[in-house]
Amino acid sequence: HVQLVESGGGPVQAGGSLRLSCAASGYTGRPVCMGWFRQAPGKEREGVAIIDSDGNTVYADSVKDRFTISKDNAKNALYLQTNSLKAEDTAMYYCATRRYCTTMAPDAFGNWGQGTQVTVS
Fold this sequence. Notes:
0% of the residues lie in helices and 49% in strands. The protein is mainly β and 121 residues long. Strands 2, 4, 5, 6, 9, 10 and 11 form a 7-stranded mixed beta sheet that branches. Strands 1-3-8-7 form a 4-stranded antiparallel beta sheet, with no helix packed on it.
């Protein structure tokens, strides 16, 4: 019952930056945890960053100090600012939601967007 649409991906040179966006709709007004995830070919989907209703955040060690998750409550939008991109950041990036930010495990998130591709060369 929550629809998510990602955008902002594309090709980028190593060391560059991209700002990913996720437009959300269909909320009921209850608290929600939103997160960014990524999946590279041949690899399992992994959590990148999550943010709860109060703005508290958690980051994967692999992106700490390089990526920033944020949200705009007025616009119902989620963002991921990606800086100092590396080849290993290449993946399909997804936004997803669940009730509470008690875990970053992908299997715990039930609502997913279609993804946006990030390719670092």
